[in-house]
Design brief:
Length: 274
């Protein structure tokens, strides 16, 4: 698949801005349900409740000790364990470890602090080897690490870092503009933990970004700050890719390569390799 075909498929329809949040959620879930491929052979998928939070467990046919918690993206108001099922199933297969996807409560029905509480509760119960999150879920992963005793490996896929502004964000790009980010940030910001962006959330981090994404510039800047502060941060940027292109990791060659590299780096760290 070419990136332009991916963008056309994922670009929301022009509804004049009148589409309600429930309708946008249905459209988001329908899109991902249509694109979802079969789970890897032998993988066991179980929905259950942990610490009062709904989760989905992905247990690959070949599995070693240690678990990974996954926090999905979707701007804090979209997304679910269903919409990100294909990503989490593939991550579990590549890492050969159980991945637990958290169906945290979404904004605006709850505050950012309550969504963070859901994620932190699951991490506290499981004490996973790693926490991985994409986009809005990446910011939740950062804040879980900042506000809990858990200090394992952090995997970040085009996360929201620091305080987004028109000045520090990169240029507008397909599927995500600076206005989109700032609008969502306004909804979350009052309850986001007040932690200096330059302070590493953990000392072991792997990150993945997309070249055509306003969130990439601030991520690259904060990675340099984290490294200066002593964190070991691995980083790769998928050329010509856009925000949300992780959903095309099986079809977009550049994202496929970057995703494979990210997963191998996470696996090496979990195996204890430098």
């Amino acid at each position: 698949m070419h990136i332009q075909d991916f963008i056309r498929e994922f670009n929301p329809s022009d509804d004049g801005g009148d589409q309600s949040l429930p309708a946008r959620r249905r459209a988001y879930e329908t899109l991902h349900a249509r694109r979802r491929i079969a789970d890897p052979f032998g993988m066991q998928v179980v929905d259950e409740c942990l610490a009062g939070i709904n989760v989905r467990r992905f247990h690959p046919a070949r599995s070693i000790a240690g678990s990974v918690v996954y926090l999905h993206g979707g701007g804090w108001n979209l997304g679910s364990v269903d919409s990100h099922h294909g990503i989490t199933a593939n991550l579990a297969e590549r890492l050969q470890r159980e991945v637990i996807s958290v169906d945290y409560r979404r904004l605006p029905e709850v505050s950012y602090a309550e969504a963070l509480d859901d994620c932190r509760a699951v991490v506290d119960v499981l004490a996973p080897s790693a926490v991985v999150g994409d986009s809005a879920g990446g910011r939740l992963a950062i804040d879980v690490a900042h506000t809990s005793e858990w200090k394992g490996l952090l995997g970040l896929i085009y996360p929201v870092v620091g305080t987004p502004t028109l000045d520090n964000l990169g240029e507008d790009a397909p599927l995500l503009s600076r206005a989109d980010i700032l609008s969502l940030w306004t909804m979350a910001a009052p309850q986001v933990p007040d932690v200096p962006a330059a302070q590493p959330p953990t000392l072991n981090i792997e990150a993945l970004s997309a070249e055509r994404d306003p969130l990439t510039r601030p991520l690259e800047q904060v990675i340099e700050s984290w490294r200066r502060a002593g964190a070991a941060v691995g980083y790769r940027c998928a050329p010509d890719m856009v925000h949300a292109s992780l959903h095309g990791h099986a079809e977009l060659p550049a994202m496929q390569i970057a995703w494979q590299d990210f997963c191998k780096a996470v696996e090496r760290r979990l195996d204890g390799d430098p």
